[in-house]
Amino acid sequence: MALTEINFDGIVGPSHNYAGLSLGNLAATAHAGNVSSPRAAALQGIAKMRANKALGLVQGFFLPLPRPNARYLTHLAADAATDRGLIAGAWSASSMWTANAATVSPAPDTADGKCHLTVANLVTMPHRAHEWPDTLRQLQVAFSDKAHFAVHDPVPPSFGDEGAANHMRLTAGHGQPGLEVFVYGRSGGRFPARQHEQASRIVARQHRLDPERVLFIEQNPDAIAAGAFHNDVVSVANERVLFTHEQAFADPAAAYEAIRARFPAVEIVEVPASAVSLEEAIRTYLFNAQLLSLPEGEMALVIPTEADESSAVRGWLDRMLASNGPIRRVIPVDVKQSMANGGGPACLRLRVVADPATVDPRFLLDDEKADRIERVIARHWPEQIDPADLGSPSLEKTVQDARSHLLDALDLAKLAGSESA
In 3-state terms, the chain is what percent helix, strand and coil (to 5)? Predict the structure, then answer.
């Protein structure tokens, strides 16, 4: 079985809007009330997928979830005139950020030799907490081969779990056993800490990981307070490389020592605050990048154009490249619509190490399928959405019809209905 890393990007849904629902996500709240461009956002996402595929990488995708979530609104007894925040939550297209879909442990790390996926409960934010039933159903279809995958229900909602956005893996190669690093936060600061330590420990046990190859590290509360609502806003890992901001962890020296003790081959590329401030790292999403192993053996960092346009960030990246370190290429990508809602290139993808032949092929991208998806988006996705229009019957029909056309185009009509309560 040929194990490889597959990046599953979320197709930006037709209800993509800027309602500003995510407390602690500075970009999302800063753009609250702005008019969004769902069609442009979705096409930007497909272009990113095409670019990664052109690098020789295996690319997958997940579908937008059913929106608006009528069952969710019924359950809340929401009033369209007065409960505008609840209405917006039911329309949220936040499932596009598939880094929050689940936590994934590849087969080489697990006791039963299967790839384990635990869907995230996302309980900290109401607009996301109703995602998991539909996400779970999609994961169960995409990874239905029970000989190779185990897909788990979420951990109990008393323990906040945000999925792979707070999980990293270090390994000599994607198909080899690795060290899984779970990063958690502690409550009490300016913004809520979304990843609970016990949620991480439950996932590790559920995935049957070797305790000697697992670490639990606390996120720096100053980073959370500065707007790093997930660890992947300040740190990212790939194979032997940990690319991190100096202020990512509560105790960086202890974190590095613990990582080196269990994975001595690690190469830590630390960006000092004196070169790129924590605030600038968060504003530009330097670390919310895709750190990728290219087929020719080099590592590339796919960054948002906002990072490339920052003089501080670009200056540091140029010095890094000149130093002949482990990251040899920097590739800017335009995901401005996603960035304005608080999600960069890494937010848009879930990494799954598996044999592509074991994945439902309907979820794997090729050029013809990308063409098909783009045609549906160009024809059916709304050009713009004003948050004030959420709840409109005509917009609701447009959004639902758009998703239905996509499901039909991909032979996935079985996912048409919602499982959310």
Answer: 40, 20, 40
Max Cα-Cα span within the chain: 59
- Read off φ and ψ for residue 409, nearest 5 degrees: -65, -25
How far is residue 340's CA from residue 360's CA, in Å, rounded to a whole number? Answer: 32
pTM: 0.96
Instruction: Report d(CA 274, CA 67) in Å as an integer.
Output: 44
- Kindly state the DSSP code that residue 345 receives in the 8-state scheme: T
Q: Across the chain, what does the average pLDDT equal?
A: 96
**Cα–Cα distance, 211 to 351 (Å, whole number):** 22
Q: Domains of the chain: which residue ranges? A: 4-208+335-415
Q: Is 144 helix (H, G, I), strand (E, B) or coil?
A: coil
Distance CA 139, CA 144 (A): 8
Reading the block at residue 371, the tokens are 């063409």
Backbone phi, psi, residue 270, to 5°: -100, 130
| CATH T-level assignment (fold) for domain 4-208+335-415 | L-arginine/glycine Amidinotransferase; Chain A (3.75.10)
Q: Which long-range contacts (CB under 8 A, 24 or more apart) does 308-317 make?
A: 308/332, 309/284, 310/280, 310/283, 310/284, 310/286, 312/275, 312/276, 312/277, 312/280, 313/276, 313/280, 313/281, 313/284, 313/286, 315/275, 316/271, 316/275, 316/276
pLDDT in tens, 102-123: 999 999 999 999 999 999 999 9
Active site residues: 162, 230, 347
